[in-house]
Amino acid sequence: MERETGPSSSAKLRRGDREEDVKVIEWEEFDHELTRLWSLSSALKLATEKKLSLQPKLESLIQVSADSLRRANELEEMRQRLEARKLLVEKTSAACKVTEQDVKVKEDSLSAEVRSLLVGGTTLSIAKSKLQESNCQLEGESGYTHLKIVTNKLRKRQQYMVSQVSFIYPLKIEAGPSQDQELESLPGGSRLVGTKPVSQGSVRILGLPFSMAPFTKMSFFTDKKEVQKSATALGYVAHAVSLLASYLGVPIRYPLRLGGSKTYIRDYAPYIEPSSSDMSAISTLSQNSKFVEFPLFLDGQDTTRAAYAVFLLNKNIEQLLNFVGENSLGPRQVLANLKELIRIIQSPDYIHS
Q1: Are 241 and 316 in contact (CB under 8 A)?
Q2: Each residue of 211-252: pLDDT tens digit?
Q3: Which of 256, 261, 251 has its CA nearest to residue 293?
Q4: Which residues, 6 or more positions from 186, have their beta carbon under 8 angstroms from its beta carbon?
């Protein structure tokens, strides 16, 4: 029942609406209404025709507007790409400026290096030409002759300088048996075997004798004046050896620290280790290498260090003797070896040797 009631009620509603929409026209107004409807129909037809005529135009305008919008979007994208390109160009330009400045700096430094290279090349060329000239001078008999002349001049100059040393520190032999005592042993237990003196008699330097007796055994009865004379004589010898080594151009193996009668000699590889009492007095540590200084004089009752210092001094004289082609007369012949060295240098054969 309810289902049948629903549709019938809705139909009734529609009918009521139609009845409301229906307009009742009086007969007297029928012509007027008909004319109005006719005019409205004509206007509707005319509006429809205008609509149909305007529709293509509207569609074309819409198409044009769509094309304009699309082109505007494309232009915006192109503008954005152009801005990005501009930024890239600016960055590239800045990098080019920095690179250009670096190139200028490098060009300046390269120019300076090229100039220095040119100067070095010129100097090298001059040195090469001088070297060639020197080689030409040394080639053949003329070059050898020139070398011999220069060598003879050098030897003569050395003889002159050595004669000055001999004049400052004259070495003379005093007639009589030699009183030099042989240095029987070295620190560490090693023994030295010396040769006998060439001539009988003691050699004196500036009138002072030198004896190894105080250096081998120190006692209460040892003459203090003799000890002082020996220390002074050793100071003279050390100074003379230092001068001779510089004139001959020979770096001595055991350097000297000159101080007159308080002279020291250095050993970079000593046979013995210094005692704690002597460390502050005679031991010195350098920054690059370690060495020990030994006194060329008697310092207290310890004679071992002084004897070893005399041995090292004689080794320096032996080194100079070997340089001029001679051997030592013995480990105890300090003054005799020095006299022999001066004699060999002052001999006429030294110039032509």
Answers
A1: yes
A2: 766 666 655 556 677 778 888 888 889 999 999 899 888 898
A3: 256
A4: 192, 271, 307, 308, 311
Q: What is the pLDDT of residue 181?
A: 39
Smallest CA-to-CA distance from 255 within 224, 225, 294, 203 is with 294
What is the structure's pLDDT at 177?
47
Q: How far apart are the first and last CA of the chain?
A: 160
How far is the C-alpha of 37 from the C-alpha of 227, rounded, in Å?
165
Residue 350's alpha-carbon distances to 241, 319, 341, in angstroms, are: 18, 17, 11
In angstroms, what CA-CA distances link 216 with 178, 235, 242, 301, 310?
16, 18, 25, 11, 11
Q: What is the pTM of this model?
A: 0.51
Q: What does the block give as tokens for 305?
A: 């260090």
| Average pLDDT, integer, range 307-336 | 86
The position carrying tokens 């000593």 is 270
- pLDDT for the residue numbered 162: 87
Highest mean pLDDT among 46-50, 98-102, 156-160, 185-189: 98-102
Who contacts 283 (Cβ-Cβ below 8 Å, separation ≥6)? Answer: 274, 292, 293
DSSP secondary structure string, 201-247? SEEEETTEE--SHHHH---TTS-HHHHHHHHHHHHHHHHHHHHHHHH
Q: Read off the amino acid at residue 277.
A: S
Report the distance separating Cα 176 and Cα 247, nearest Å.
Answer: 33
Encode pLDDT of 285-297 as tens digits.
444 457 888 888 8
Q: For the chain, what is the total number of helices (H) and then of strands (E)?
A: 8, 7
SS3 call for 333 = coil
For helices 224-248 and 140-168, the axis angle rounded to 10 degrees is 160
CA torsion through residues 25, 31, 34, 40, sign: negative
Q: What are 12-61's pLDDT values in tens digits?
A: 556 655 555 666 667 777 778 888 888 888 888 888 888 888 888 888 88
Strands (E), 125-194: 171-174
